[in-house]
Write a structure and sequence with these properties.
The structure holds two protein chains of two kinds.
Chain A lengths: L1 H24 L6 H4 L6 E4 L16 H10 L4 E3 L5 E3 L2 E6 L4 E6 L13 H12 L17 H4 L14 E5 L2 E5 L7 H4 L11 H4 L1 H6 L7 E7 L3 E6 L13 E5 L4 H9 L5 E2 L10 H5 L3 E14 L11 H9 L3 H6 L6 E3 L23 H10 L7 E7 L5 H15 L2 E7 L2 H9 L6 E7 L5 H9 L13 H11 L4 H18 L3 E12 L3 E2 L15 E2 L1
Parallel strand pairs in A: 1-10, 14-15, 14-16
Antiparallel strand pairs in A: 2-3, 4-5, 5-7, 6-7, 8-9, 9-10, 11-17, 12-16, 12-17, 13-17, 18-19
Chain B lengths: L1 H28 L4 H6 L6 H11 L5 H13 L13 H36 L4 H15 L2 H15 L13 H31 L2 H9 L3 H30 L2 H7 L4 H10 L3 H29 L7
The chains are: A alpha+beta, B mainly alpha.
């Protein structure tokens, strides 16, 4: 009897549990399931869940960047060669590199019909820069006069307006900078400088989930961790008008899963093929395979505070650089996803030059000699710090092997479990001897790769390289009266860096993606991003 | 019985608090700061990091942070994610139904097919079926789940074109079939072997001889006397396995692109979204507690000698 009664209990419990899950399950749109989520004329790509709500100045990672670029248009953009193309601006001009005048194209509107005016830009920039709003890219506005008033180092902002921004009329405004920045117009190509409609200020939080922009695409829906869908906007007037009906940004847990979907025709574009599929993707995708270099570099950065490299003779670092067999490693271990570096800047940026040096060549004999001349490596051992969640282990091992065989200096990897731990060690000056550094162009000029990484006060200079001569040479470039002169001055900086070795450049990145048979005209910009508006559906 | 259940339910409260504390502390001592990680490798503004850390209370001592978290939890507030600013309850509500569907599917598959195969083999030890089952389960146990996953994906999606390679719609049971089979196959092997072994053992027991001597029909001997006793170890295994199926699906979820709990917790971990990890992990602890309670109650059904008061 006893047993039968408890059986009822248990059966009851199971029924309740099943009912509860069934209720939770049978939710949203059933209609999509029959079509498998594909829409005619739309292009689908494996762009995952953005880390943050969709606000232009709060997005600095690749997934969010893709969506922001579809929804918003800034003043200008760059073509494949890295030259300026005006989008929302008619012109951006200056006489002294200090005061810049922006003229907007007439008749532009946001997706909700509100006109895009000079005020839309100025208000947005003031809001982005304000320290109260915690925008991640706020420091991009720090060149502008009055930035300290809205974004003080400590305490509350004194004002909510930067005095350097002045509206002249509906389509004109001026930007006054604290110092000369001859390349400031290039910075304006970053998505952070996008305008905002008035509805944004009513409820920024809701806006971040359902943004209204002035870009080639209009927001449709965002199902978290699944899909973001945007449709082409009829009213768009810029040169980068959508050539398709819309885009579906699909979230994938792994690049392997996305790759399977491209091969089987359930997904149109994959932006980067995962390492396991790299050896065969050209065969699988045929004409759809994409393989193109872009403006990004990977380096080994010595920590100049570490026991190994404190007060090191640059000759030692030159020697280590020559002990790395870049050609073989990029061809074998890295499957041609990288191109051996020949300078501190990638070829796609303005000012990239052929350096008159052999430090990027593999030459074990000379490497040994240079290290000896420089006094050797203390302890005869170096560590290369990397994060294990980014697929770096294989090449770090290969680089170490190469250094060890060529010079006899012992080299081991110093793995950190993930990127967060890796960054923390860099910030806290806890790198044992070198770390893996990477940099993607923010704007296509050599200055971006030199000043942000090797100026003694640069935030990303985590090796703490500090050299007065280099700082002085950079200052010269910053005070130049024209862009050409500034680029030239920075070319001098780069030449000098060969003797200083603030880092060991390894290789430039290539993008290895692909697309299926349903789409065509898939091209890549200088930052390695797919230019989605140009993609056509067959 | 009712009192026993009530006592067990009450015991869950300290276990729940204890487990949230342990998981919270593990997240706390992990190196790597969530706000700093947000900034990535590019340039950033350190004063902003400090300010955001302060606003989030990350600069407070651990006991303040834990107290703050618990206080929120008791008001039904799981907290908000640092990066996405989404409510964690919303993230849980999106991931759990998917996982529960997948788990139930895999669980049913494991239980029905596993016990079925076990019975077929166990009734005739050392026969051809028995040897066949042992070989099959040996293969399943020794094959890593990603190998099986890619194999099935290749075979069913690319060769036969019966299904899409990844899950397009997590509410479609047809789509979930492949991942559920992959997920359940390891447990299936264990269940089949357990069933088989305990049946073979019990076949030789005294009470079986008595039942045969009494002249009972074979269906009743096997169905009631043999099965009831043989299933006790299997039920124990299946009970703990529900929890494993729910959390251990990261690899399978990755291959078939299922946006379930495994992925959610893994992503939260790498981004140091402490509150998300603690929230999801604590809910899984509750699932474990409930299934073990159900298992204990099932013992009484299977073995009348076991009583709860």
């Amino acid at each position: 009897m006893r047993g039968a009664r408890s059986a009822k209990w248990v059966a009851g419990a199971i029924v309740v549990a099943l009912a509860a899950t069934a209720c939770g399950g049978g939710s949203d749109d059933k209609g999509d399931s029959s079509k498998k989520g594909a829409l005619a004329g739309y292009v689908s790509i494996d762009v995952g869940e953005p880390q943050k709500p969709l606000v232009p100045a709060d997005t600095n990672e690749s997934n969010g960047g893709y969506v922001i670029r579809a929804l918003f248009t800034q003043l200008l953009d760059f073509d494949e060669k890295g030259e300026i193309v005006y989008t929302n601006a008619e012109s951006v001009t200056t006489k002294d590199s200090k005061t810049w005048t922006v003229k907007l194209k007439e008749g532009w509107k946001f997706h909700n019909g509100e006109p895009v005016t000079a005020q839309s830009y100025v208000d947005a920039w003031n809001w982005y820069a304000n320290s109260k709003n915690n925008q991640q890219n706020a420091f991009w506005f720090s060149d502008i006069v009055g930035y300290e008033d809205v974004h003080p180092d400590k305490g509350e902002p004194k004002s909510d307006k930067m005095s350097g921004l002045k509206v002249v009329d509906d389509t004109t405004f001026t930007i006054e900078l604290k110092d000369q920045v001859p390349y400031f117009n290039y910075k304006l190509g970053y998505t952070t400088f996008a305008p905002l409609p008035k509805v944004f200020y009513d409820d920024p939080k809701a806006f971040g989930q359902k943004p209204i922009g002035n870009g080639p695409y209009q927001f449709e829906k965002w199902t978290h961790k699944k899909l973001i869908q945007v449709k082409a906007w009829d009213g768009y007037k810029g040169p980068n008008k959508a050539q398709n009906k819309g885009i579906q940004f699909k979230h994938y847990a792994t690049p392997e899963a996305a790759y399977q979907d491209v091969v089987s025709g359930n997904l149109d574009i994959i932006k980067q093929v995962g390492p396991t599929d790299l050896p065969k993707y050209k065969q699988d995708l045929g004409d759809g395979a994409l393989d193109q270099p872009y403006a990004a570099i990977q380096t080994l950065v010595p920590a100049f505070y570490s026991k190994t490299f404190k007060g090191v003779d640059p000759k030692v670092l030159q020697g280590l650089s020559m002990a790395i067999d870049r050609d073989t490693i990029t061809k074998t271990v890295l499957n041609n996803t990288r191109m051996p570096a020949t300078s501190f800047t990638p070829p796609q940026v303005k000012g990239n030059q052929q350096l008159d040096t052999d430090i990027f060549k593999y030459d074990p004999a000379k490497a040994k000699k240079l290290i000896k001349e420089g006094g050797g490596v203390p302890g005869n051992k170096i560590w290369i710090q990397y994060n294990t969640d980014g697929g770096h282990k294989e090449w770090v091992t290969a680089v170490c092997e190469s250094i060890r065989n060529a010079t006899g200096v012992d080299c081991v990897g110093d793995p950190k479990p993930d990127f967060a731990t890796d960054l923390e060690a860099r910030d806290n000056n806890e790198v044992k001897s070198m770390y893996r550094g990477g940099w993607v162009a923010d704007y296509p000029i050599n200055i971006n790769f030199l000043k942000e990484l090797y100026h003694s006060k640069a935030e990303s200079n985590n090796g703490r390289f500090s050299d007065k001569e280099i700082d002085k040479l950079m200052e010269k470039g910053d005070n130049a009266s024209s862009l050409e002169e500034a680029v030239k001055a920075y070319q001098e900086v780069e030449k000098k860096l060969v003797d200083k070795m603030p880092s060991i450049p390894l290789w430039y990145y290539r993008i290895n993606g692909g697309h299926g048979k349903n789409v065509d005209n898939v091209t890549i910009n200088y930052q390695g991003d797919i230019q989605l508006h140009k993609v056509t559906v067959k | 019985m009712g009192r026993y259940v009530a006592r067990r339910l009450l015991q869950m409260i300290p276990v729940f608090i204890g487990s949230t504390f342990l998981i919270f502390m593990m997240m706390y001592v992990l190196p790597g700061d969530p706000v700093r990680a947000l900034m990535g490798e590019q340039a950033f503004d350190p004063t902003l990091v400090e300010k955001m850390r302060h606003d989030l209370g990350l600069d407070q001592p651990w006991w303040w942070q834990y107290g703050h978290y618990l206080a929120g939890l008791f008001q039904g507030d799981f907290g908000t994610e640092i990066a996405s600013k989404r409510e964690i309850s919303e993230i849980i509500a999106a991931a759990f139904p998917v996982t529960i569907r997948l788990t139930l599917f895999a669980f049913t598959f494991t239980a029905v097919v596993g016990i079925g195969l076990g019975i077929i083999a166990g009734l005739r030890p050392d026969s051809v079926q028995d040897r066949g089952l042992l070989t099959l389960t040996l293969i399943l146990i020794s094959m890593p789940s990603f190998v099986l996953g890619y194999l099935l994906q290749y075979f069913f999606a690319f060769q036969l074109q019966m299904v899409t390679p990844t899950v397009q719609d997590s509410e479609n049971f047809g789509d979930l079939l492949l991942p559920a089979v992959v997920l359940g196959s390891l447990s299936l092997a264990y269940v089949a072997r357990l069933t088989r072994t305990s049946m073979v053992e019990n076949l030789r027991a005294d009470y079986m001889r008595t039942a045969v001597a009494k002249g009972l029909p074979r269906r009743r001997i096997v169905g009631v006397h043999l099965m009831r006793n043989s299933l006790i170890p299997v039920v124990t295994f299946l009970g703990t396995d529900i929890g494993n199926l729910m959390t251990g699906a990261i690899v399978t979820e990755g291959i078939f692109n299922v946006q379930g709990v495994g992925n959610a917790i893994f992503e939260a971990l790498t981004r140091r979204e402490g509150a998300t990890v603690v929230g999801i992990a604590s809910l899984i602890v509750i699932v474990y507690l409930f299934t073990s309670l159900i298992v204990d109650l099932l013992y009484a059904v299977l073995d009348p000698r076991i009583r709860y008061a």
